[in-house]
């Protein structure tokens, strides 16, 4: 598993270092005084959830962004990496998540791109140098192959070779395994090992714990733009995989204050026949196929669905709500089979879905709040009669919900896109929880909200369950799941890998299930 | 958001003031480009050696002030309004139906062939009604292929509708020359619908009742899009297709309906033009109304009432421009130059307005 770095005595300076860099975007601090050191011969893993600030950090190393504060040092000297070309000059090559190759050109032609426009590309020379690099790092690439005909793993190898041919001593692999098959990821891990033996420093960005442990020498964990911990190589070896996992889970998901109430007042354990019953649900999907989901939720019960983002939670939620075709499976709501109904039919029977993509699909940003509150009921009485809008009824309805759910807005005619994320979420909650709701799916309900709105939203979820609704809470925030749920199901690679009762041992059990250690 | 207040029952006076200022801004946004375009076009005329004042004088006189000119202008407004109505439905639903010319022309040719055929056998009102219905159906039929491709395969409708226009225009020509040719004339054209069998004129003028059909259509479309559940569904699809799916709307079906209405109105425009104005279709006739109306509808920001104003303005320009062109020696299509400059001015105004607003915040 973890190897010690093969590099000889440590040089006095890291190849590249970020010194207390801060990067702000409108409304967010993407990186807050982050320091980061990169030593030759090491795979330095950058671990964190979506939105933790990994991409921003990489952007500053690869010349896409400049830090607002703090410095970038290459071999101890402060530099300004203002463009990707400058980064390459300094020996920093980046392989982005999405291929930057031209699929219709051959490998050699891709390598020759970027040469001076007046000269004919020296294909033979490029192929020769490419063969040399390939031999050195132990990969086999046909220089004449069309890039589009290569697998994603092979394309990545081409990009790595290209970066090395341009003299990179630092290689940044941004979410490199996200699109790869498990075999492809393993090959990439082995390749990283060989690269470090040549003294190259690798930055490996991922949100998969098991890969971090398998391929990394040093691990840095980012959370909400801050560096929350670093595990040095010696410590990583000393800890061993199990203890390291626990340590990383703790760093990634935190055990900070603010959740001291830990679930608030204990709620009576709901019992009774399941209200929402899912059996053998499967969804076809190119990136994360979902299969074999069995889950039942009793009235008044909150079932948390934990898991690292992108493990099929979205596909599952959309299939449940009716936005996606089921490949197989049954869904019963109060005993009635609803898997053949469309979105509207399921909603009518009381199934609600609070999407996490609030502006992307949850609302029409340019439309007034009043209409967004009725987005899923267009044409229904009393708001429309014989298809004609009834402004009075619509306004009354909007005023009532805006008041009840405390949506802070200048008026009900305000375009919903102008509101803050917290208020948009309140409007969505108003739309989904009002009326004859019986079962609700919350997808990452507090994602991107501030503390106050997080608290308010969680209170709504609790109240929904107390009203006797069956609740499925999808969240990547382990604290949230543990705070609210009665039971916790863990999703990994499109399957539910375990369901545990939320008790004292739940945290460690869920952490293990999430990391795939006991898969 | 510091100005965020709790929602109250009444609109505050400050907000009403703001609304008035907002309306003034919109009017300025519509008028400034028009003024700019007139000035710039005048410079182009100067460069051509034509006195812009006398050109615009002719345009105003022949298109607006002269009673015959005004009547011709109003008559032309009818079909253009129908086309504008069709474009508003489509554009608001996020469907870029640029195939209006094919839909228009094919409907025109078939109605032109059908009219003289039915006229001897049926009462006039029935001939007219049949003509209008057939025109709308033909127009809609010519959009079925792009509609299916868009709704079920996601094929870009800009490309497919433009392609269908090329096909439709050529096909219409073939029909005139080979199938529907009037044997009594030497130039290839369809048989002419007798003046008595055409759409009735309004009162004692030469204005065709096509104007009324156009006005009714565009007002109806405006109300449909702003006041009905169906219109709202189309607007949701247009503004955010993913939200439409999330809300459970049947997006493919709504897309098909949008195409049918939009192309049907373009076909109706063809029928109105033939039965109200032309009476027949000559070979190689293609007024390309639809593509000219596209910028006007944009200028009106897809608002039905504003579209009436812009379409009328364009009709004045185009009718007046025809005689002004004859008298001043400027090419006939100079009207299009004015519209093109108008569109560029519109873009610039929009850009400046956005910068101003960004700076104000």
From TrEMBL, chain A:
**Organism for this UniProt entry:** Ancylobacter oerskovii
Gene Ontology molecular function: ATP binding
Tell me where the signal peptide lies.
Answer: none
Which parts pass through the membrane?
none
For this entry, the protein name equals ABC transporter ATP-binding protein
* Start and end residues of each ABC transporter domain: 16-249, 273-518
Q: Which residues form a coiled coil?
A: none
Provide this UniProt record's keywords sorted from A to Z.
Answer: ATP-binding, Nucleotide-binding
Note the superkingdom of the native organism. Bacteria
Automatic annotation (TrEMBL), chain B:
Write down the InterPro entries for this protein, in alphabetical order. Answer: ABC_transp_permease
What are the UniProt keywords, alphabetically? Cell membrane, Membrane, Transmembrane, Transmembrane helix
Query: How would you describe this protein's topology in the membrane?
Result: Multi-pass membrane protein
Where is the major localization of this protein? Answer: membrane
> Which stretches are transmembrane?
26-48, 68-91, 103-119, 125-149, 161-180, 207-226, 247-272, 292-317, 329-348
What CDD domains does the record point to? Answer: TM_PBP1_transp_TpRbsC_like
Compartments reported by the entry: Cell membrane
**A Pfam family recorded for this sequence:** BPD_transp_2
Q: What is this protein called?
A: ABC transporter permease
The source organism is Ancylobacter oerskovii
- What are the leading ranks of the lineage? Bacteria, Pseudomonadati, Pseudomonadota, Alphaproteobacteria, Hyphomicrobiales
């Amino acid at each position: 598993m973890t190897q010690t770095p093969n590099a000889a005595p440590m040089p006095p300076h890291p190849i590249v270092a970020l010194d207390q860099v801060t990067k702000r975007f409108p409304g967010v601090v993407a990186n807050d005084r982050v320091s980061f050191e990169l030593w030759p011969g090491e795979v330095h893993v950058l671990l964190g959830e979506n939105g933790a600030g990994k991409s921003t950090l990489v952007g500053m190393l690869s010349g896409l962004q400049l830090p607002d504060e703090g410095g970038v040092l290459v071999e101890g000297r402060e530099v300004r990496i203002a463009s990707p070309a400058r980064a390459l000059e300094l020996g920093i090559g980046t392989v982005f998540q999405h291929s930057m190759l031209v699929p219709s050109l051959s490998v050699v032609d891709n390598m020759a791109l970027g040469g001076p426009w007046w000269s004919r590309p020296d294909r033979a020379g490029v192929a020769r140098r490419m063969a040399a690099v390939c031999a050195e790092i132990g990969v086999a690439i046909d220089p004449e192959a069309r890039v589009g005909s290569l697998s994603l793993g092979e394309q990545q190898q081409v990009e790595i070779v290209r970066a090395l041919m341009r003299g990179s001593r630092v290689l940044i692999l941004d979410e490199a395994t996200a699109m790869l098959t498990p075999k492809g990821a393993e090959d990439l891990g082995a390749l990283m090992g060989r690269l470090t033996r040549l003294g190259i420093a690798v930055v490996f960005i991922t949100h998969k714990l098991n890969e971090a442990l398998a391929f990394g020498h040093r691990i840095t964990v980012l959370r909400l733009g801050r560096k929350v911990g670093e595990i040095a190589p010696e410590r990583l070896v000393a800890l061993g995989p199990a203890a390291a996992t626990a340590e990383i889970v703790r760093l990634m998901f935190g055990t900070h204050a603010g959740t001291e109430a830990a679930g608030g007042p204990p709620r009576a354990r709901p019992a009774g026949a399941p209200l929402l019953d899912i059996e053998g649900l499967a969804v076809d999907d190119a990136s994360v196929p979902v299969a074999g989901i069995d889950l039942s939720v009793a009235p008044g019960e909150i079932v948390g669905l934990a898991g690292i983002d992108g493990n099929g939670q979205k596909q599952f939620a959309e299939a449940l709500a009716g936005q996606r075709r089921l490949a197989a499976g049954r869904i019963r709501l109060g005993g009635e089979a609803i898997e053949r109904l469309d979105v509207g039919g399921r909603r009518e029977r009381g199934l609600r879905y609070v999407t996490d993509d609030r502006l992307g699909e949850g609302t029409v940003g340019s439309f007034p709040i009043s209409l967004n509150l009725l987005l899923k009921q267009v044409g229904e009485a009393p708001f429309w009669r014989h298809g004609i809008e009834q402004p009075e009824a619509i306004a009354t309805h909007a005023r009532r919900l805006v008041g009840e759910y405390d949506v802070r807005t200048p008026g009900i005619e305000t375009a919903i896109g102008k509101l803050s994320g917290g208020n948009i979420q309140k409007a969505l909650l108003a739309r989904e929880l009002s009326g004859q709701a019986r079962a609700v799916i919350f997808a990452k309900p507090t994602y991107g909200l501030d503390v106050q709105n997080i608290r308010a939203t969680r209170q709504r979820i609790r109240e929904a369950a107390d009203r006797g609704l069956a609740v499925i809470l999808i969240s990547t925030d382990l604290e949230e799941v543990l705070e609210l749920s009665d039971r916790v199901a863990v999703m990994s690679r499109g399957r539910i890998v375990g369901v545990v009762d939320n008790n004292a041992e739940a945290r460690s059990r869920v952490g293990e299930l999430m990391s795939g250690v006991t898969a | 958001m510091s100005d965020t207040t709790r929602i109250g029952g009444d609109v505050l006076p400050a907000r009403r003031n703001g609304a008035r200022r907002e309306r003034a801004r919109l009017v300025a946004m519509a008028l400034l480009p028009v003024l700019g375009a007139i000035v710039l076009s005048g410079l182009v005329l100067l460069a051509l050696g034509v006195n812009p004042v006398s050109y615009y004088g002719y345009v105003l006189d022949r298109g607006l002030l002269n009673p015959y000119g005004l009547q011709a202008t109003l008559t032309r407004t009818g079909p253009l309004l129908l086309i504008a109505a069709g474009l508003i439905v489509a554009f608001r639903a996020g469907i870029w139906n640029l195939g209006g010319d094919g839909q228009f022309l094919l409907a025109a040719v078939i109605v032109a062939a059908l009219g003289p055929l039915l006229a001897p056998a049926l009462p006039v009102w029935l001939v007219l009604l049949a003509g209008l219905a057939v025109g709308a159906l033909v127009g809609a039929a010519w959009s079925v292929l792009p509609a299916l491709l868009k709704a079920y395969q996601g094929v870009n409708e800009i490309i497919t509708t433009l392609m269908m226009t090329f096909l439709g225009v050529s096909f219409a020509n073939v029909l005139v020359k080979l199938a529907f040719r009037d044997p009594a004339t030497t130039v290839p054209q369809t048989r002419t619908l007798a003046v008595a069998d055409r759409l009735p004129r309004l009162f004692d003028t030469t204005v065709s009742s096509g104007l009324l059909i156009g006005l009714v259509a565009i007002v109806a479309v405006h109300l449909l899009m702003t006041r009905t559940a169906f219109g709202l569904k189309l607007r949701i699809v247009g503004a955010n297709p993913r939200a439409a799916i999330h809300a459970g709307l049947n997006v493919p079906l709504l897309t098909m309906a949008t195409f049918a209405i939009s192309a049907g109105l373009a076909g109706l425009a063809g029928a109105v033009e033939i039965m109200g104005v032309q009476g027949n279709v000559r070979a190689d006739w293609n007024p390309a109304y639809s593509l000219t109306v596209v910028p006007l509808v944009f200028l009106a920001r897809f608002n039905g009432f504003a579209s009436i104003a812009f379409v009328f303005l364009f009709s004045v320009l185009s009718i007046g421009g025809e005689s002004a062109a004859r008298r001043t020696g400027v090419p006939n299509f100079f009207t299009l130059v004015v519209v093109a400059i108008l569109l560029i001015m519109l873009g610039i105004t929009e850009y400046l307005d956005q910068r101003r607003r960004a700076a104000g915040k």
